[in-house]
From TrEMBL:
<dbReference type="InterPro" id="IPR034904">
    <property type="entry name" value="FSCA_dom_sf"/>
</dbReference>
<dbReference type="GO" id="GO:0097361">
    <property type="term" value="C:cytosolic [4Fe-4S] assembly targeting complex"/>
</dbReference>
<dbReference type="InterPro" id="IPR039796">
    <property type="entry name" value="MIP18"/>
</dbReference>
<dbReference type="InterPro" id="IPR002744">
    <property type="entry name" value="MIP18-like"/>
</dbReference>
<keyword id="KW-0159">Chromosome partition</keyword>
<feature type="domain" description="MIP18 family-like">
    <location>
        <begin position="38"/>
        <end position="112"/>
    </location>
</feature>
<protein>
    <recommendedName>
        <fullName>MIP18 family-like domain-containing protein</fullName>
    </recommendedName>
</protein>
<comment type="similarity">
    <text>Belongs to the MIP18 family.</text>
</comment>
<dbReference type="GO" id="GO:0007059">
    <property type="term" value="P:chromosome segregation"/>
</dbReference>
<dbReference type="Pfam" id="PF01883">
    <property type="entry name" value="FeS_assembly_P"/>
</dbReference>
């Protein structure tokens, strides 16, 4: 592993508050659809490969860039690396994809895309 970091001094952003769990969220008799916040909560705590920070703290993933279509069984996540030519972007995308494939019902097709800013 290279000792040089792509982004040695990243900007750290404030994390969102935890989502409030309602009684109906825990009721197994109620069918609830997967929503973007639920998906975001799964990936927000993934650690960045180069820093001891989460993808949320680095603003690599944002709730607004998570899209869920329950009718078509699709989840799409767009992420933004901290720098334009991040050598870790592929690893970050793969980490997001694997986390979602392991966590979501198998009916979902997961798409992860890197945005260019």
């Amino acid at each position: 592993m290279s000792s040089r970091l792509d982004n040695a001094n990243p900007i750290v952003y404030q994390s969102q508050k935890e989502r409030e769990i309602l009684p109906e969220d825990e009721d197994d008799n109620i069918e609830d659809k997967v929503d973007s916040r639920e998906v975001f909560d799964l990936i927000r705590c993934i650690n960045d490969p180069e820093h001891p920070l989460t993808l949320e703290e680095l603003n690599v993933v944002e709730n607004d860039r998570v899209h869920v279509n329950n009718e078509e069984n699709r989840v799409q996540v767009e992420f933004t690396p901290t720098i334009p030519h991040c050598s870790m972007a592929t690893l970050i995308g793969l980490s997001i994809r694997v986390k979602l494939l392991r966590s979501l019902p198998s009916r979902f097709k997961v798409s992860v895309m890197k945005l260019h800013e």
